[in-house]
Amino acid sequence: MKFIDSAGIVAFLTAYFYCVSTAFTYGYFYTLGLDSDLLDRNFHQVIYHGMITSLENAIYLSAFILLFGFFYSNWCFFIFYYIKKSFSHGRRLVRLKKKINLPTKKLSKRELSIKAVFSKSVGVFLVVIGFLSVLIVYEKSGMEQANELRVRIPKGNLQL
After folding, report:
1. Nearest to residue 20, comparing CAs of 155, 119, 132?
2. Alpha-carbon gap, residue 136 to 133, rounded angstroms
3. Is residue 137 within 8 Å of residue 131, measured between CB atoms?
4. Is residue 4 classed as helix, strand or coil in its secondary structure?
5. pLDDT value of residue 18
6. Cβ distance 20 to 53 under 8 Å?
7. Taking the alpha carbons of 152, 155, 156, 160 in that order, is the dihedral positive or negative?
8. 23: number of Cβ within 10 Å
9. pLDDT (tens digit per residue) in 41-80
């Protein structure tokens, strides 16, 4: 499967929205002492609720990726321009890399493959930890909304 495969992206987003909605609803119902089995929601409602609930974070993530890409590309352009300007600038960069113990020579094919496997495994680990952290945040958000409702009920203020 290619990394940019529409079927894989749709499957991932569907699972993500389902998990977000389920975590939020579980936290909400658990705090109010309700049984989620009695309150039926169909698949489309769950997915839609997950999409709406995670929309704000998706916008923040998109903005972060855009800003990171902008600054990274400008930094790379600056480094390439600096090196291209003069040979001595390139030598300074190599000396700096040696001083902070960064590799200055190209890696062998075997080293590159080991580095790729390690990078992918770290990436998968970070994605899983991030996903679980997001679910915890949404569950706590559902609990907070339910607690706000529990405070408003005795006051008779049920306006949303």
Report:
1. 132
2. 5
3. no
4. coil
5. 92
6. yes
7. negative
8. 22
9. 888 888 998 888 888 888 998 999 999 999 999 988 888 8
Residues 78/71, Cβ–Cβ less than 8 Å? no
* 105 token code pair: 């020579």
Pure H helices in the chain: 6-32, 43-53, 55-85, 87-99, 109-155
Evaluate if pTM is beyond 0.85: no
Describe the crossing of helices 6-32 and 109-155 by its angle, rounded to 10 degrees: 30
pLDDT tens sequence across 112-153: 899 899 999 999 999 889 888 888 988 898 889 888 888 888
Q: Which two tokens stand for residue 64?
A: 């972060």
Structure tokens at 1: 């499967």
In 3D space, the residue among 131, 134, 141 whose CA is nearest the CA of residue 25 turns out to be 141
